[in-house]
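Re-running Tripartite tricarboxylate transporter substrate binding protein to confirm reproducibility after the cluster update. Everything else is unchanged from the original entry.
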Amino acid sequence: MSGIARRAMLLGALALPAVRRAASAWAPSGPIRLLVPFAAGGTNDEVMRSLAEAASRLIGQPVEVHNKPGRGGVRAIAALAAAAPDGRVLAQMPVSALRVALLEHLPFEVPGDITPILGVAGQAFGAIAKVGRFPDGWAGFLREAREKPGTLSYGSPGVNSNGHLTMARLLLRERVQAVHVPFRGAAHGARALAADDVDAMAGPVSGIGPSVTDGEAAWLHVWSAQRLPRWPEAPTLRELGYRLTVTAPFGIVAPPRLPAEATAALHDAFRAAMRDEAFQAMLARNDMTEDYRDGGAYAALLAETARSEEMLIGRLGLQP
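Result of re-run:
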C-alpha cells in the first residue's frame, strides 16, 4: 500500500470525531477562494459556481470561484495544500487528483495534505456509438472486436481518465482489444465520433449525452447504479453482467490543519447550500446525483478510492 493510501486511511479514521467535537461559531475574516480544477464554462465550473453562490449567502462573505485546471486536478490541490489553514481557501476535490498523485509519486500527499469538509455530488458516465453503428449495442461492439481484433477504436476525455480506464477494464475482462484515442475533453470526442473518427466514445454523461439527445448517437451503456431518468433505454453495466459502478464523486476540501471549529462551520454552510433549489436544479440538468457525506465519511471515501485506484493502476499497468 502506498503512502497516499496509508495516510488516507488514517485521515478517514480521525476526521469524523474532529468535526463532531467542534462548535460552529467560526466565521471567515474575508472572502473565500474556491479553487475549481476545471476550465471556466464547463459542467464542473457551472455546478461549483452555483454552490458557491448559495454558500456566499449563508457564510456572509463572497465565495469566489478561481479556475485552476491542469494535471487532473493536482495543480489546484497542490495550491490548496500550500495555503494557510484559515478557512479562506477551499477546493473542489476530483477523483482524478488521487490517480495522478499515485501515478506520478508526487511529493505531497493526496488526501493526506488536505482537510475534508464534505462530499457533494457524483458525475454520471457512459459510452456511446453513432446511431446504427452497432445495432446490437455493446454486444455488437464486442462481437466486431472479436471478429476484427485491434481495428475498433474508442475515445475518452484523456489518458487515464475515467472513460479510458473503465473501457480498458471492460475490454480486459472480455479479452478483446480496441485502440484508445484520447481527446481534450468529452465534447471534442463526441464531435470526433460524429465524424466517424472513432467507433465509440466514453466519458461523462454531461459531455457525451447531448449527442444522444440530438439523435446522432446511441448509448452502449451507462455506468451508474440505476438507469438514468433522462435516458431510460440505456442499460447499466450491472444489467450487462458487470459488477461495476463508476461515478466521479467530488467534494470540498481545505488545507491541512484547518481548526476544527472552521471545519465544522464550513461543513454546515456548504451542506445548507446544497439544499438550494438552484443548485439542485443544476445537478439535475447535468445528470449528477447528490452524494452528501460529512467530513469523516468523505475522508473514508477518499481512503477507499485511493486503495482502489492503486489496485487499478497495478492491474492495468498504467503509466503517467
